[in-house]
Amino acid sequence: MKRYLLPSLFALLAACQTAPVPAPAAPVAAETSAPPVAAPTPGQQWLYGSAEGRIALVQGWNAVAAYVESRAAARPNASVVLAPGASAEAAEFLPCGDKPLAAVFDADETLIWNLGVTAATQRMGKAFDPKVWNDWEQTGAGKAVAIPGALDALARIRAAGVEVIVNTNRSAGNAEGNAATLSAAGTGNFVHGSTLFLRGDDDQGSGKDGRRATISETYCVVALVGDQLGDIADLFNAKSLTPPERKALTTSAAFDPMWGNGWFILANPAYGPSIAGTMVEVFPASTYWEPASPE
Ligand SMILES: [Mg+2]
Question: What is the value of pTM for the model shown?
Fold first, then answer.
């Protein structure tokens, strides 16, 4: 009897290791209405909480650092900032002359993760609240953290003699708090108007092309790094573009070779213009499929 029991026990244990864990039973609704329990979104779980998210960002930052080092070793003639009026059909880049080299970074979900305010808004059951965000810009220092891989990469970039510049849509009115947040996260001591450029520095609102042009008056920009396409060029944010059209624009002959070669997008599945698209926009009609035995 024992001889047969043991193999069966092992078989059962092996099955337990591979079988999907059954979902816990749904909680029974309380009679009194309790406040909803805060929970992270799937995008937040992946980005801020997962090993995979951390690894993807470290990989991205390593690629940024290696590219910038290569540019510092072999100085380019042209910047990676598009010239005014450039398009996918006529992509022209600003000339570098003998200007010092710089790499330009977005701040939010590029240099830093906004953990404090993200958790707070989840607890409040809100998506995005401009008032809460403004408070965060003023008082959030110490509660935002450097993105995995960023600090090592920034050290390599600075060691290569390339200036690190931040171009962010945080408000110029909160320059002091924004600089304090970046400093507390260890990314550097940035100076407004010199190495830190903010929304409100010009009359272009959240468009960043004007600030990129201002930075380019002093520097040859060898890398643009962000989590959203507006961190690269404003033309990607044209309101008329559907998600597939926006995606197609990034693959145009002039722009496609730039990804990983001066233009870098870091993963952010938590928020932003990338979180968009209908069923037909996300899933091409050519891949339509039905199971043989639908429920
Ligand atoms: Mg960002």
Answer: 0.87
